């Protein structure tokens, strides 16, 4: 990990590339379309993957039915968009990407079954997929045993570092610490009420948050509480929040519960624009706001790596292309953007390796960078997570976030944080 | 946990917590009334109840979009139109389903469970195909979101009040229909003894269809009302199904009064536990208590004395 | 019905055909991947057989079979997890030697009730005894008070809901919503490669036959006939002096044990266990397997579980956005058009043509019109 310790800065690494650095990854610097005949199939594919002279097959594995379809649809759309764009540029090593899409049906054994199908039967070169931690945990042994390669888009709790997965979302410390620091520094927050849906991501995240609040910020946690997934009645906890009067409500509620929580919070007369208490969340992206209604969450803060409103050229192009493909009323959340990175990172790694073989792609992956990422610039860490910036957004009534803070440097991913366990 | 608070603060919190319990009670009543008619009176295990509710929610969504586009001036009032249309849509769909499926299964109640489960899968996928897999955002008129300050400390959420009034109104309407109207007498006659009811000249088929339709229609209204407090997506309906059935069974399936009493006791228990424990445990303990009591008293709180 | 032989001739023929399909046709026709899938489907067949006993023969419809399936699965998963969590393999944890999810939840010592699951013998015993005990408690409470039919179905459904919330809420001890994952070996035998899955498939198939024999023996016995009598006219059986509740409790326990065996095999076959398999939706789906196969037919249950799961996989591969329509329509069709499921279709349309001497009529008598 030693060579990754210094924080790479976009300008520095661009210089490195221009100077002939090996990380020739970003599509900007490659001539459009490598020619397939320069990369004979028997050389770029020595392990029997589904690669022909003109095509390469890639799997997409998300829930398009069941309760998780609500969240995973955006990821599927982003992945398909990225693949179309890659194909329009000539594909990967001159080969068009063909996708095989499977439905995980919000059911973890089905995810494992479909992953096995993609790897064993279809022999796909890589898989873009999974959303919940549970589905990732279910497919992980399948990927490790069959030596598949998965690009996983969701921000998640960390505590994992598989050689067969590239984590394109943020792990918990990346997402949490910068946001807490910001709210303590800028808003003088001292007391926090932690709230979440009852499963591993909110619990682990809140554990890290609690440690950071108590040990590093010198603040206090006045309440911590979990509700079952799908819970729709939050009036009791809202009363408890009134009783405790925290400076910050730190909410990690997910799924349909989100809608119920924010609507009831607003109806109970807690106006988030007044910021007393201030609401900070790490689980509400623009996607969720569509269901919640912008007017119901106006004034809340969210901490993640990407917001649709980020101003840079990459993002403007990405947003335009996404709306062009799926309609003007589409919104793009953090996970959708992370899912969009998957195919691009894979393409970059394959072309750096000059091979589709999973072992070679894995070897080439650390250090791969993407200057064309909508979020700006990302680079794969040795631990298979991404270096990325963390941002704080302020929710507006139109359902968009206004970016109010952005870390100066890329934040190092640290899936096994010392002192936060 | 209460040290360092003044008496007035504590009083205010408890008042609001009591109110939260009442809102939960109203939500339960709205959820359960439709099912109390369909399951309690007709004996049909309608696993698609949640999907009928969500149909009402989607109707509300469509109506709100229509008003926003064509009659923005009347937007504040669209909710009432939406509730009427939700009743009609869910009711008509319910009558159609009764005609197509349920009427063949009255002698096999457990089979209605399987058939309506299949129906719920089809409805979910239909919603997904029509409205997309994502949740839709239903814009609630401004006057309904927000709260009335009663004192400095106590604030009463308006949508909570609205749900309570609605629950009262619908309970009253159902009560009058079931126990004070000729139609209600027919319904009760048919459910108690179908053959005899037919013999004395009641059109049992028509009565069944209408009863089922009204049960579904009430579910539709509940769904419309729940857009204020919950989410609207293809699978949102499933979140309600267990609570709903437990409320009805706990009350003693055949008794409307029982349904209301059980909604009250379950909601109060859950609301109080939620205040002192964490959310998940409160839910588990409430459910366990309900199941435990049902094991000791399987006929529910208010059982109708029937000779089997 | 003669008691001279254990099985009637058509039953023996049915068993032989099933054996042929499971032991010869599938292994020859399917590649390893598909065979593994069928291995997974077979684990559901255990539940379906148990349900035929409870529901088809006893008239008890449980919507909580997923709980028993899960109990067996979790028992097996706990054993496998402990085997996988050797101090060497978990050296990076703050407390080596305990399952990884416990370490993530700041649990520093193995909980006492996990300890016995170091022992394989105890685990096997637990897979049979824990669900049986649990079923006994539920059955004792409910059947003694003459709770039946619809009420029983809904209460068991609530139990499935509670179990899910409880497992998810106690994630330090249960692995939470992720479940118990990353299981590697069974007594040193690696369960992950395809060859192991094929072996497990055959273990499954053999166990299915054991369960079928047990179930048939139960149905054949006097006990089985009391059950059927109970289903059709419970009060008359009670007035004849039989202790109806005890019979129901017994058959419910047997059904629970079969579900539990299925769950344990499921864990081995799939390599993890999670609360989604315990909840309401899978529990209802298990009833559907049984209904599609024919709620009165033990062999039908096996075919039902295989067919529905195969259809689910195939539909969702070919038409991922439409498969719920197909599945939903299947449920409605089973109830409306052929309430006795595949077995009923077989009896009505195929059997008469086969013309087994003097068999058709009697077989009918075992498969009456559904009565609740």
From TrEMBL, chain A:
Sorted alphabetically, which PANTHER family does this protein's record hold? ALIPHATIC AMIDASE EXPRESSION-REGULATING PROTEIN (PTHR47628:SF1), PTHR47628
| Pfam families the record matches | Peripla_BP_5
The record, for SUPFAM superfamilies, names: Periplasmic binding protein-like I
What is the protein's given name?
Urea ABC transporter substrate-binding protein
GO biological process: what's one of them? amino acid transport
TrEMBL record, chain B:
User: Pfam families recorded for this chain?
Assistant: BPD_transp_2
What Gene Ontology cellular component terms go with this record? plasma membrane
Q: Which CDD domains match?
A: TM_PBP1_LivH_like (cd06582)
* Gene Ontology MF annotations: transmembrane transporter activity
Q: Which InterPro entries match?
A: ABC_transp_permease, ABC_UrtB_bac, BCAA_transport_permease
Q: What is its main location?
A: membrane
The biological processes this protein is annotated with in GO are: amino acid transport
Report the domain of life of the source organism: Bacteria
Topology relative to the lipid bilayer, per the entry, is:
Multi-pass membrane protein
Location(s) in or outside the cell: Cell membrane
- Print the keywords alphabetically: Amino-acid transport, Cell membrane, Membrane, Transmembrane, Transmembrane helix, Transport
Query: Any transmembrane segments, and where?
Result: 12-40, 52-71, 77-97, 158-178, 210-229, 241-263, 275-296
Among PANTHER family, the record links this protein to: ABC TRANSPORTER PERMEASE PROTEIN, BRANCHED-CHAIN AMINO ACID TRANSPORT SYSTEM PERMEASE PROTEIN LIVH
Would you identify the family this protein belongs to, as annotated? Answer: Belongs to the binding-protein-dependent transport system permease family. LivHM subfamily.
- Protein name, per record: Urea ABC transporter permease subunit UrtB
The gene for this chain is urtB
UniProtKB/TrEMBL annotation, chain C:
Q: Quick check: keyword Membrane in the entry?
A: yes
> What Pfam families does the record point to?
BPD_transp_2
Q: Name one GO molecular function term.
A: branched-chain amino acid transmembrane transporter activity
Spans traversing the lipid bilayer: 12-30, 42-64, 120-143, 150-169, 198-218, 239-266, 322-346
Topology term for the membrane: Multi-pass membrane protein
Q: What is its main location?
A: membrane
NCBIfam families according to UniProt: urea_trans_UrtC (TIGR03408)
**Name of the protein:** Urea ABC transporter permease subunit UrtC
């Amino acid at each position: 990990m030693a060579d990754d310790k210094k924080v790479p800065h976009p300008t520095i690494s661009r210089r490195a590339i221009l100077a002939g650095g090996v990380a020739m990854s970003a599509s900007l610097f490659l001539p459009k379309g490598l020619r397939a005949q320069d990369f004979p199939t028997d050389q770029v594919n020595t392990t029997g993957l589904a690669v022909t002279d003109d095509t390469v097959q890639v799997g997409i594995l998300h829930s398009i039915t069941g309760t998780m379809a609500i969240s995973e649809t955006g990821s599927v759309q982003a992945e398909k968009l990225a693949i179309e764009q890659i194909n329009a540029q000539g594909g990967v090593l001159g080969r068009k990407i063909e996708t095989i899409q499977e439905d995980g049906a919000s059911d973890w054994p089905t995810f494992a079954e479909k992953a096995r199908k993609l790897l064993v039967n279809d022999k796909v070169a890589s898989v873009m997929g999974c959303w919940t931690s549970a589905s990732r945990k279910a497919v992980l042994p399948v990927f490790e045993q069959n030596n598949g390669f998965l690009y996983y888009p969701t921000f998640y709790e960390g505590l994992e570092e598989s050689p067969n997965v590239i984590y394109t979302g943020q792990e918990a410390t990346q997402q949490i610490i910068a946001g807490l620091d910001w709210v303590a520094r800028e808003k003088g927050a001292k007391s926090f009420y932690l709230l979440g849906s009852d499963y591993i991501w909110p619990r682990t995240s809140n554990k890290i948050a609690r440690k950071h609040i108590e040990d590093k910020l010198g603040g206090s946690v006045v309440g911590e509480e979990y509700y079952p997934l799908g819970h729709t009645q939050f009036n009791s906890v809202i009363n408890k929040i009134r009783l405790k009067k925290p400076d910050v409500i730190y909410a990690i509620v997910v799924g349909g519960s989100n809608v119920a929580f924010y609507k009831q919070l607003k109806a109970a007369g807690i106006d988030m624009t007044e910021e007393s208490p201030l609401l900070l969340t790490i689980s509400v992206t623009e996607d969720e706001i569509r269901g919640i209604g912008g007017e119901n969450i106006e004034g809340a803060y969210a901490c993640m790596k990407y917001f649709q409103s980020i101003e840079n050229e990459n993002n403007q192009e990405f947003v335009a292309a996404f709306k062009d493909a799926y309609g003007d009323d589409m919104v793009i959340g953090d996970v959708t953007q992370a899912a969009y990175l998957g195919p691009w990172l894979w393409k970059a790694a394959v072309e750096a390796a000059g091979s589709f073989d999973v072992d070679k792609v894995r070897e080439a992956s650390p250090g791969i960078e993407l200057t064309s990422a909508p979020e700006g610039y990302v680079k794969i860490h040795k631990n298979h997570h991404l270096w990325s910036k963390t941002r704080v957004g302020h929710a507006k009534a139109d359902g968009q976030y206004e970016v109010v803070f952005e870390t100066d440097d890329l934040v190092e991913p640290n899936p096994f944080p010392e002192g936060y366990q | 946990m209460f040290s360092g608070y003044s008496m007035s603060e504590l009083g205010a919190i408890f008042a609001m917590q009591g109110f939260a319990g009442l809102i939960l009670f109203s939500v339960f009543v709205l959820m359960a009334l439709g099912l109390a008619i369909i399951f309690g009176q007709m004996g049909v295990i309608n696993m698609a109840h949640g999907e009928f509710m969500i149909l009402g929610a989607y109707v509300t969504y469509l109506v709100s979009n229509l008003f926003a586009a064509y009659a923005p001036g009347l937007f504040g009032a669209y909710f009432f139109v939406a509730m009427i249309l939700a009743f009609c849509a869910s009711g008509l769909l319910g009558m159609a389903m009764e005609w197509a499926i349920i009427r063949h299964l009255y002698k096999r109640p457990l089979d209605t469970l399987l058939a309506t489960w299949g129906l719920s899968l089809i409805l979910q996928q239909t919603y997904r195909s029509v409205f997309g897999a994502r949740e839709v955002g239903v814009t609630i008129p401004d006057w309904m979101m927000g709260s009335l300050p009663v004192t400095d400390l106590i604030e009463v959420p308006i949508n909570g009040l609205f749900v309570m009034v609605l629950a009262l109104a619908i309970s009253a309407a159902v009560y009058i229909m079931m126990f004070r109207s000729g139609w209600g007498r027919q319904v009760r006659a048919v459910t108690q003894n179908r053959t005899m009811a037919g013999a004395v000249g009641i059109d049992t088929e028509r009565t069944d269809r209408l009863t089922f339709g009204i049960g579904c229609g009430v579910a539709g209204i509940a769904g419309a009302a729940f857009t204020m407090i919950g989410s609207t997506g293809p699978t949102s309906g499933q979140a309600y199904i267990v609570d709903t059935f437990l409320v009805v069974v706990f009350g003693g399936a055949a008794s409307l009064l029982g349904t209301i009493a059980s909604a009250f006791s379950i909601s109060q228990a859950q609301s109080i536990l939620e205040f002192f424990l964490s959310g998940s445990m409160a839910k588990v303990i409430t459910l366990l208590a309900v199941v435990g009591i049902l094991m000791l008293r399987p006929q529910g709180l208010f059982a109708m004395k029937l000779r089997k | 019905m003669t008691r001279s032989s254990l099985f009637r001739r058509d039953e023996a023929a049915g068993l032989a055909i099933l054996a042929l399909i499971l032991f010869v046709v599938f292994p020859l026709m399917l590649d390893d991947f598909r065979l593994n899938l069928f291995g997974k489907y077979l684990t559901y067949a255990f539940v379906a057989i148990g349900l035929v006993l409870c529901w088809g023969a006893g008239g008890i419809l449980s919507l909580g079979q997923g709980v028993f399936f899960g109990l067996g699965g979790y028992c097996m998963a706990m054993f496998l997890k402990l085997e996988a969590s050797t101090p060497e393999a978990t050296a990076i944890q703050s407390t080596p030697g305990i399952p990884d999810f416990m370490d993530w939840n700041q649990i520093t010592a193995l909980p006492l009730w996990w300890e016995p699951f170091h022992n394989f013998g105890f685990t096997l015993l637990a897979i049979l005894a824990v669900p049986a005990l649990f079923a006994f408690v539920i059955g004792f409470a409910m059947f003694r008070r003459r709770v039946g039919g619809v009420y029983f179905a809904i209460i068991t459904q609530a139990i499935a809901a509670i179990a899910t919330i409880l497992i998810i809420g106690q994630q330090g001890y249960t692995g939470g919503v992720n479940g118990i994952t990353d299981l590697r070996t069974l007594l040193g035998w690696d369960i992950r490669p395809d060859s192991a899955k094929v072996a497990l498939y055959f273990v499954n198939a053999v166990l299915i036959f054991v369960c079928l024999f047990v179930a048939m023996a139960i149905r054949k016995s006097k006990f089985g006939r009391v059950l059927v009598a109970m289903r059709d006219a419970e009060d008359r059986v009670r007035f004849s002096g039989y202790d109806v509740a005890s019979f129901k409790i017994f058959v419910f326990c047997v059904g629970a044990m079969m579900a539990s065996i299925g769950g344990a095999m499921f864990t081995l076959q799939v390599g993890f266990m999670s609360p989604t398999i315990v909840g309401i939706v899978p529990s209802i789906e298990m009833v559907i397997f049984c209904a599609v196969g024919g709620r009165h037919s033990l062999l039908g249950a096996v075919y039902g579980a295989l067919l529905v799961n195969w259809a689910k996989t195939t539909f969702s591969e070919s038409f991922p956005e439409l498969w719920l329509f197909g599945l939903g329509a299947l449920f409605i069709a089973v109830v409306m058009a052929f309430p006795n499921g595949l077995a009923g279709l077989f009896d009505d349309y195929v059997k008469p043509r086969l013309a087994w001497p003097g068999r058709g009529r009697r077989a009918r008598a075992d498969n009456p019109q559904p009565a609740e």
